[in-house]
Specification:
Layout (H helix, E strand, L loop, with lengths): L1 E2 L10 E6 L2 H24 L15 H7 L11 H40 L2 E6 L4 E9 L2 E8 L3
Antiparallel strand pairs: 1-3, 2-3, 4-5
Length: 152
């Protein structure tokens, strides 16, 4: 692989190929997988009740889960009820904070994926070398195929 710049002559044995920024794509996909998977786990632990079913929708789901959630009012007639209410409020704040942070990670990961897809660049790929490719495929009853291509 060699870098290619517009208007540059292509050396013999090379061809111009367009390649995406694979490191950005991989990082974004891993980040999205982790954050979306975490959202699914949180939604499942909530039984997908009280708007936590929105967590199954990537990117916008966390924000819809916060907006659509039913926040019960507490009855504060006794000290015991007030303590129970305070505990419930703390749990709701923790849930909202976690879901909001997860939503930010999903948005950031999607922008990284988009940047990787849009950051494709032209490179020179040498074609006169031997390339060995091992790939799955049905060839004469064999589950794997080995192909060799190029000049020896």
């Amino acid at each position: 692989m060699l870098p290619y710049y517009e208007g540059m002559p292509v050396p013999p044995g090379y061809e111009i190929v367009r390649r995406p920024a694979s490191a950005l794509l991989a990082g974004g996909i891993v980040g999205m997988g982790i954050s979306y998977g975490t959202a699914l786990i949180v939604g499942a632990t909530q039984g997908f009740d009280n708007a936590s079913g929105w967590l199954a929708v990537p990117i916008v789901g966390p924000w819809a889960a916060i907006a659509d959630r039913n926040y019960d009012q507490c009855n504060l007639a006794t000290v015991t009820q007030a303590r129970r209410c305070a505990s419930k409020v703390v749990s709701e704040v923790q849930y909202i904070t976690f879901v909001a942070v997860d939503g930010v990670f999903q948005i950031a990961s999607s922008f990284i994926i988009l940047a990787g897809a849009m950051s494709a660049r032209d490179e020179l790929l040498r074609q006169d070398l031997v390339h060995v490719n091992v790939a799955p495929g049905k060839t004469g009853g064999v589950d794997w195929a080995v192909t060799v291509q190029g000049n020896l």
